[in-house]
Amino acid sequence: MAYHYSDKTLPTVIVIGGGFAGLEFVKKLNNTPFRVILIDKRNYHTFQPLLYQVASAGLSADSIGFPYRKKIGPFPNIAFRMAEVERIDPAEKQVITSVGTMQYDHLVIATGTTTNYFGNANLEKWGMPLKTISDALNMRSDILQEFEKSIVTETLEDKESSLNFVIVGGGPTGVELAGALAEIKRNVLPSDYTEIDRALMKVVLIEAADRLLSAMRPASSKAAQKYLEKLGVEVKLNTIVKDYDGHKEELLLADGSILKSDNIIWTAGVKGKNIPGLPESAYGRGGRYLIHRTNAIQDVTDIYALGDIALVQGDTQFPNGHPQVAQVAIQQAHQLARNFMRQLKGKPMQPFRYKDKGSMATIGRHKAVVDLPSFSFSGYFAWYIWMFIHLMALVGFRNRFMVFMNWMWNYFTYDKALRLIVRPYQKPN
Ligand SMILES: Cc1cc2nc3c(=O)[nH]c(=O)nc-3n(C[C@H](O)[C@H](O)[C@H](O)COP(=O)(O)OP(=O)(O)OC[C@H]3O[C@@H](n4cnc5c(N)ncnc54)[C@H](O)[C@@H]3O)c2cc1C
């Protein structure tokens, strides 16, 4: 029997956010006796792990975004609303959105995270984040504009500032972006920007901890650093950024030293993108919702959280919550959908158990690091594994095909071909 969204006798499930968690959850509720509404402020899903390749002109934006309606349009019991959820009223079981108020029986919050500048207003103003496709396009424009600017500026100091790319945060995003920028310096500047003295372009990666990729094993951190340094990236460990003066283009470090740079890329942290309206006790560390192992948010009824925004309590293997990665989001989504079906049959919900399948990061051509649950490896083979897994994880055949073709092009030509300044980036004043 086909269930239809227009059947108001079915319980209404509202899902806020169509990232890895929200989209996976609604897909699992296809053709089930629920009336499902997916709300997202954008009309497309973003494949965040490849944002850095859009930012570094290796991939086009539309090959890592996927329209929600294309995915769920064919599912009769699921509707999409493009709206921003502003507030939740748990007493009335309502969500208040930019397009009106909606009533739910069950609410699932999967709003992910936003960039965390740890309260520094200057870094928030001037630092470039990498969380959305817009961020990636801004960054791409900015990098290319700085190349153009460096050619026409007079003084060596200004040229150096334009060509100094400082990435703060040595997690996977910072590492992968640093590798991609180093490849631009190595492969693109000598052929297309012959007026730029290549030696002036610098890529600096700053990390507060004593190693890169601190969520991975030490051997992988070491390999990643070695690969980056071979590519010419300057890796600064145990280094804390204090402040940034965007007018003087000066980055102040905790040891008092100053780095001159017009380009501060901030990948040093995230915080939960929670929505107001729930009791204080529902919000935990890092802006995440405190949830039981069934993904139910504590101290409210019929409200659940999934993915990056959810801080699971009571899992002895992960006493500080699960890592904010795609696999956790996907596995939680599957478990919650199973639990919704169990509830329909009068069965109790089962707790979420994370199956760690490993983690990985790539550092330019032919180099990647992979941590599997029992061992780690790096190099050529890791790079192929990285490519295969990311290709398969993309939503939609067209996107997989486009990404594959682009990668082939980049591989054989050594080019990052998508170097258009379509939408010039305006630096803040
Ligand atoms: C640059 C980058 C690289 C990454 N690389 C990797 C990687 O290699 N491997 C890995 O496993 N993980 C990676 N991650 C982390 C991974 O992307 C996240 O763990 C995952 O996206 C979490 O999924 P989610 O569904 O919880 O949130 P998201 O995917 O962030 O989705 C949240 C959704 O909610 C919507 N939303 C937010 N607030 C509202 C609102 N108020 N109203 C309506 N809609 C709203 C947003 O538009 C968005 O679509 C990376 C993240 C980034 C930023």
Low-confidence spans: pLDDT under 50, at least 5 residues? Answer: none
Bound compounds, each kind once, are: flavin-adenine dinucleotide
Report on the biggest sheet: 5 strands, parallel
Q: Indicate the CATH class of the largest domain.
A: Alpha Beta
Rg, rounded, reads: 23 Å
- What coarse outline follows from CA principal-axis ratios? globular
Taking all residues together, what is the mean pLDDT? 96
Topology, number of strands: 24
User: What is the domain tally?
Assistant: 2
What does this 3D model show about the protein?
The protein has 429 residues and is of the alpha/beta class. It folds into 2 domains: 137 residues, FAD/NAD(P)-binding domain; 195 residues, 3-Layer(bba) Sandwich (FAD/NAD(P)-binding domain), CATH 3.50.50.100. 32% of the residues lie in helices and 22% in strands. It has a 5-stranded parallel sheet with strand order 5-2-1-9-20. The mean pLDDT is 96. Flavin-adenine dinucleotide binds next to α1, β2, α2, α7 and α9.
